[in-house]
Automatic annotation (TrEMBL):
Residues 44-121 form the Retrotransposon gag domain. This is Retrotransposon gag domain-containing protein. Pfam families: Retrotrans_gag. It comes from the Eukaryota.
């Protein structure tokens, strides 16, 4: 016959042991991380009840640098084709910087605008400005044939 009381106490003991093990793991981790990280840990809210995963997430959020969208957009706006830089390399550089700017659906339009604005040769810029309904495919096509 199955003894419900015995099974319940074993389950409780298992949960209690797991809880104590997690507390010990947390204590060891806090000891190992060093004084500077412990000071950072002490700035976190509600850490006494936080799990190890929660603590790792808090440390990651603290140490991973936050992106400054305005700064990234400014870098994009200042990009111009360098001397002896091929147009396709310039487009690649624009695309890479554009990924950091969070423009969403405007990305392609802004890419074309920045490409036209940043071209070294005014002849190419003027040629592209005459093309109606410019998109990046048209721009690249026109730049390849010029």
């Amino acid at each position: 016959m199955w003894n419900h009381g015995n099974y319940g106490s074993r389950g409780f003991n298992f949960i209690w042991m797991r809880h104590r093990l997690m507390l010990r793991l947390k204590a060891i981790s806090l000891h190992v991380i060093g004084e500077e990280c412990l000071e950072i840990y002490n700035t976190f809210n509600e850490v006494s009840s936080a799990s190890m995963n929660d603590l790792l997430a808090k440390f990651q959020a603290y140490f991973v640098p936050q992106r400054n969208i305005t700064y990234e957009r400014q870098k994009l706006l200042l990009l111009v084709q360098r001397e002896r830089q091929f147009v396709d390399d310039f487009i690649t550089e624009l695309r890479k910087q554009l990924r950091n700017c969070d423009y969403g659906s405007l990305s392609d339009s802004i890419l074309v605008d920045q490409l036209v604005r940043g071209l070294r040769e005014s002849r190419l810029r003027e040629h592209l400005l005459r093309v109606p309904d410019m998109d990046i495919k048209k721009a690249v096509g026109h730049l390849l044939c010029c």
